[in-house]
Design a protein that fits this description.
By secondary structure, this protein is an alpha+beta fold. It folds into 2 domains: 31-174, 2,3-Dihydroxybiphenyl 1,2-Dioxygenase, domain 1 (Roll); 187-383, 2,3-Dihydroxybiphenyl 1,2-Dioxygenase, domain 1. The chain has 11 helices and 17 strands. It has helices at residues 16-19, 42-51, 93-101, 115-124, 202-213, 260-268, 283-292, 303-306, 308-312, 319-325, 369-382, and strands spanning 31-38, 56-61, 70-77, 80-87, 104-112, 129-138, 141-149, 155-160, 173-174, 189-196, 216-221, 232-239, 246-253, 272-279, 328-332, 335-341, 352-359. Strands 6-7-8-5-1-4-3-2-9 form a 9-stranded mixed sheet. An 8-stranded mixed sheet has the order 11-12-13-10-14-17-16-15. The longest helix is centred in the C-terminal third of the chain and has 14 residues, at 369-382. The radius of gyration is 20 Å and the shape is globular. The two termini are 14 Å apart. The model is unreliable at 1-19 (pLDDT under 50). Bound molecules: fe (ii) ion (FE2). The site of fe (ii) ion has 8 residues, from strand 10 and strand 14.
Length: 386
């Protein structure tokens, strides 16, 4: 699975606490603020995320709010905020982004108390500035934003909103009428967001998050861990100090056939966000609703469930609905977790979603990767890309 499996860094537990350096705190993060996509048709994409994934339209900006060159729809479900933005003219850079990448994630925005300090701390450490600190104002107060570049054309915007009371950011109008399209499914927050980078680039970006953003390695695994007979990948997970922001980073590895990461890089035309994991506290109810609303999930063979309880031990959930829905389970020394992956949500085989429920485990489903990898390869094969 692409994505996915990330195994605890091997450490001698007796030594780890004494030797671990104090985590750098030059970039305090409150969590993910929003994820912005550049898309070809934001109005229709918003309909999909509302009707299929259960988001509610919360705010809008576009010609009706005085913005001439683009339109943006802000969608919310509990703590998860997605922004879908499209260009209104072909010469706009957003249109060029969509031409090259297809619909995809442009901005993984991070919530901070001081956007200028975050921008300064990261650019002082080598980050490339995309947007210098700027104050945005409207009748609901003011917000500060600043952005830096990460892999590919992806950026991180630092958002400071302590003096802002509006629905999203200045310039956006709140949408207060009932959203008759939205059918919430119980998604709560973003658990992690995975980036795919090019051949041999993983360590460069791991080092970027460590040096520029003060992240540390959370878990890691390599192609001995994540490979099947055919395709392979390597992955390391970077986390900020309070673990509210976790970014696994994948690179392709050599296998007998084309790595699923390479397929992504070919179709996205470069590095970018591969999957977004969204957490629920009732995965059976959430996945059932998503399925009934048209979200398509990867399936592993039914045999996966025959010896599941022998592999992971007792779990609170009944086995039958897990089998029916295709939910996967994995256990580590802290507890267990349940997860499932959608098929790509674009025509290009690029971005997809993970639905995750944690019951103690803080890892990423290492025990599932082989079954998932093989499910992904079946789909790659159907696309002619294996
Ligand atoms: Fe994941």
């Amino acid at each position: 699975m692409s994505l996915i499996a990330h195994q605890p860094l091997k450490q001698d537990p007796a030594q780890a606490p004494a030797q671990a350096p104090a985590p750098p705190d030059f970039l305090p993060l409150n969590g993910t603020d929003y994820v912005e996509f550049y898309v070809g048709n934001a109005r229709q994409a918003a309909h999909f995320y509302r009707s299929a994934f259960g988001f509610k339209l919360a705010a809008y900006s576009g010609p009706e709010t005085g913005v001439r060159e683009r339109a943006s729809y802000v969608l919310q479900q509990d703590k998860i905020r997605l922004v879908l933005t499209t260009a209104l003219a072909p010469e706009h850079p957003i249109a060029e982004h969509v031409r090259i990448h297809g619909d995809g994630v442009r901005d993984v925005a991070l919530w901070v108390d001081d956007a200028e300090a975050a921008w300064k701390a990261t650019t002082d450490r080598g980050a490339r500035s995309v947007r210098a600190p700027e104050t945005l104002k409207d009748e609901n107060g003011e917000a500060r934003v600043a952005s830096i570049a990460t892999y590919g054309e992806t950026i991180h915007t630092f958002v400071e909103r302590r003096n802002y009371r509006g629905a999203f950011l200045p310039g956006f109008a709140a949408v207060t009428k009932d959203d008759v399209v939205s059918r919430p499914v119980g998604l709560k927050y973003i658990d992690h967001m995975v980036g795919n980078v090019g051949w041999g680039e993983m360590n460069r970006w791991v080092e970027f998050y460590a040096r520029v953003m003060g992240f540390s390695m959370f878990k890691h695994f390599d192609d001995n861990d994540i490979s099947t007979d055919y395709s392979a990948l390597m992955s390391k997970v970077m986390s900020n100090g309070n673990e509210r922001v976790k970014f696994p980073i994948n690179e392709p590895a050599k296998g007998k056939r084309k790595s699923q990461i390479e397929e992504y890089l070919d179709f996205y035309r470069g590095p970018g966000i591969q999957h977004i994991a969204m957490a629920t506290d009732d995965i059976i109810a959430t996945v059932r609703k998503l399925r009934d609303q048209g979200v398509e999930f990867l399936r592993v063979p039914n045999a996966y469930y025959d010896d599941l309880l022998a592999r992971v031990g007792p779990i609170e959930e009944p086995l039958d609905p897990l089998r029916e829905l295709g939910v996967l389970v994995d256990r580590d020394d802290e507890g267990y977790m349940l997860q499932i992956f959608t098929r790509p949500v674009e025509d290009r085989p690029t971005l997809f979603y993970e639905i995750i429920q944690r019951r103690g485990s803080r890892s990423f489903g290492k025990g599932n990767f082989k079954a998932l990898f093989e499910a992904i390869e079946r789909e790659q094969d159907l696309r002619g890309n294996l």
